[in-house]
Design a protein that fits this description.
Ankyrin-BTB/POZ_domain, Histone-fold, Histone, subunit A, three-stranded mixed sheet, BTB domain-containing protein, ANK repeat, mainly alpha
Length: 1196
Amino acid sequence: MEGQRRGHPQQVMSFIAESTGGVSSDTDHHYSGSPLSLSVSIPEPGHEILKPKPRRPAHGSSSTRELYAGYGKMVAERDTDSLAPTPTPHHSHQQQQQQQQQQLCELRARRAESSSDENRSSGHASMSSSGSPARRHQQLGCRELRSSGSGLEDIKLAIQQLTMRSQTSSSTYSSLSGMSSVAGGRSRAALQRHSSLETVNTNASCSAADEFVWLDSQSRLVELQQPPWSQQDVLRCLQQGRAREHLARLHMETLPRLSYLLQRALVRLARECQRLSRPLGLCSKHEVCSAFRILLCPALADSCIKACLRAAAIYAVSLRQPGEQLRQSKAERAGLQMPVGRFLSWMSAEVRLGRMVHEYAAVYLAAGVENLLEEMVLQCLQTCADAGGQLTASLLEHAIANSPDLWGLLQPYAHLNAGRLASGALAMPRWPSASSLGSSSTSSQSHPSSLEPSLLTTCVGSLQELQDLVAKLSRSARCPLPLTSKALHVLFYYMRCSQLEHAERASGIQELAYERAYVVLPPLVEWLRVAGAHAEHRHAQCIDHDDIGQAARLLLPGVDCPVRPISFEQVTPFASSKKIDDKEYVRRFSMEMAFKLLTSGRPELISQALGLLPATKINTINDNGLTALMLACINGDESAVIALVDAGADLNVETPAPSYGQSSATTGNTAMATPSRHVTCQSPSALTPNKNMNLNASSSSLSISSNQNNNYHTQTSPPMGFYAETQHWTALTYTALLGHCTIARILLERGAAVEGGAKHSEDDKPTITPLQAATASGNTEMVALLLAHGAQPFLSTLIKDTFSYSGSAQRGCYSAISVATAHGQRNVLHQLLSHPLNFSARRGEKEVLSLEEILAEGNAGTVPQHAVDSRANQRDGNESVFSKVQMKALQEAMYHSAESNHLDITMELRGLKVSWTLHCWMHSLLTAHERRLDSVIDQLLQDFLQVCSDDYSTQFVQECLPLLFNIFRHSKQKEGTTLLLADIFCTCFGWEAIKPIKDATLSSGSRIDPKFVNNPELSDVQFRVEGRVFYGHKIVLVTSSPRFRNMLSSKLCEGNPPIVQINDIRYHIFQLVMEFLYHGGCATLQVNQNDVLELMAAANFFQLDGLLRFCEVQCSAVVDLDNVVSMYIHAKVYNAVQLLEYCQGFLLQNMVTLLTYDDSVKRLLFAKKLPNHDVLAGLLSTLQARIKARKPQNTK
């Protein structure tokens, strides 16, 4: 149906070329057949989440002019019979213009006659409500237009009209503000600021031409080539998360759709993180939290941020066990299902959200996206609860279309269409409640009904009106941060309505520019929410004009603005009543002026700036925690850096750690205390970890504590002014991350500390060193410079011994070696490992082990893997050139590279004799299997004995063995890989004897005198077998076999005595069956070995479990290399379960020999199709049961 409406893409392109003179290459990508150029049609109108919905403006009376300007392209209104014929080549250009102009005039006349009360359009205001006759007529006209003619003709007509409008000077579409008085004395009091066709109805039915022009003019979200999750990850999230109880209501076809829609939310979040990270180059958990606040409604953002804090707290606790953290994935350590390592790789290497992506940023993003997925499912299930049944893909999109929290977020357009439903109706956002941690419930809307029109205002007529609205919302706590005067002017620029502005004038005033170039205007509540989130990100006390500009960039299509620089802060007065005293103004103005003088790069101005500064003078730290030297380094101003250094600036001043406190000026989660006026240069001590075990959470902090009575202050407000992620950073750290090599060389030559704020004697000082920052960015020149001045590649500043976690506190960073492997910086890793300082320190270094390592090495039951590898290296004569401490750091680096799927780096570290952990080996093997790297798979399989000893863990049994069998299943054409895996299976199964099958029927006594076997005496039934008669007794048969009971009670058994025909069983086999029944056991049975399989078939047919067990015992005794395949097939066909398990054990124990013996085993494993049976799955279950039964397993 979509193809009929839109037409074939090639035909569309041909019409474009014909109508525009052959110039159509710029729009080819819109119809390249990609998913972005198609839309999914929903049966109900108004719920099409994928289909782009252009605004169809209302029409004025016959004396008014049409107005529609969207991205510089006008779309003419068309009626059912307004399709223009294709101009023939012999017509002159002037005749074509006259003909098209006449058609447009006739169209407008028909539109004017069909509606008695048409609305005049200004792009954002309306005279009628959503239920007006004009709207009903407009929708009806669209439906009629859609059914008339072909989509290709509509597209061609739209292109002709666009061409005609661009060529004629009389088609200027301007706004006539005062024209409402001409249209029948229409009352100006009917002007509304919302619920108008122009600002609301973006989802009205449209024709193919409208869709073409809309797609041609709108920018869309980027389509991800590969999201950082798989369909299995999405399924696990739903199975293990809050939606697990409702999983039965979720149709399986919905999972791919959920994954696809979730990609759009991820793209939006990643774009905001990327912009927020650009000033400093660091993408941390703070940027991720701010991105959630910017994009999501308050309730949804609060839920996602709580999930982030919860996951990060669990992850921080796992760091207390250095040996155990390398045995689990990062997702398991954080209690998540989304792969944290893959998120980190995606953020740092694939889309490059920042020069450096902190590990906790990946934890936050993965946790937030997982929580968002659960919220999507729960909301959609709640919306579709009345419909009943399962949640299908169509019902999912229907529910999203009616959700104000999700519809704008999941649209394919670059801008965020927030505050609306798919029908175009304005909707209030949900606000968070004071619920407990992890609760997604929200309180009832706390705003009074009188505030809703103010919150949903889309346009205003004067600046004073806007000020009154903001003041009203500020008093109701819906605008917690005040707006500066300049911010109000900028906001008024975007919300200005000329009709409302000139409504009191009698005569019309013609605007000389298109009044509104935006298809939809967001409500005021969304302006304040997004701008407030940007202000909260930088810990500001007010919303300035740049915050409004950032909100316009996000909420309005086609609007963009530069990234806010780090030194943008300006002292501006508030526009509301929340003012500060004069002394604070003087201090701020003096500080701003002094820093401008200090960063000017002119020595004569620096001396004048000192008089404006406090006692710390040139080393004064501003309200953002930065000195003038740090600002100059961030801006890359070499002359300013030299001037400040020459003037005596301290090179090693650190950014202070954030302080916490309650604010009297602001309220709610966005409250923040006023920073201290003057900050000294000493860095504050690190936060003391607590010992509590209670789980407390707010949107700013979360702490875990034990029962000891330690005082710990749980934070209820964000830090005061300073950026927590950059605490203890020096000017060299900022320079190294941003890659200013010349400035870094100047700082180092003047005596800057090469490790920044990190000290070898202060292990509990969380920060990022310059070498770690330079390594993450991949700047080899900067790394070489820092190494030349003595930077330590193995220095780690990560806090591990702590019981508390705060969302606003810095956690430090692992060593530069691990940073390089996590970010995929292979060249930098070579540079770090080849530095001579590593080997010179090896000779004089004293081996220092932690308490956990000492206990592990002293435990007789466990042998550390690095000790095994050290002994192996000594035997081979190739002892590692790295020390034991360095080898442990390299093993941690291997863990990060494996988690981030950097397989090449992982294999190179293995080449340095770094010992495997089971998790790293298994994760690397999975990555190589997904990428189909056969040579790497073989290398990893050859290291199996070094990974797993005889003590197989639960992780190996439950996770590694299924992976090995999955690889084995896809390696039937790769003989080398098959034999390596077969050898691993043999090793895991062991050479102990296979558990024999016990026959429990040999000791049972006789049920009846054996002389009655085939005795006509007292016989009441006869069997005809191979033409011979066999006498039987019903009482013996029906009490022993269900099959005999059915046979003797059916109509097939007739006559006196009844005669039953037995087919497919030989006479002497049937006689053995009767002897078993009459004797009550198998003790007296004499069975030829050649008849065992046939007897087993008869036992299965007559449902005699005892006889079947006897046959299984007889068959298991003769299983060998020649008949194991035949035995296996017979066991499966005749339901001989124990014989089947015995054959599976024989196959596992002799798999290498069997694969090289003949092809029958290969055909059984890879080609034989047994009904309702998977051979490899059976082998996996048998091997898992064998390992579990061998001895008690470890829990890890």
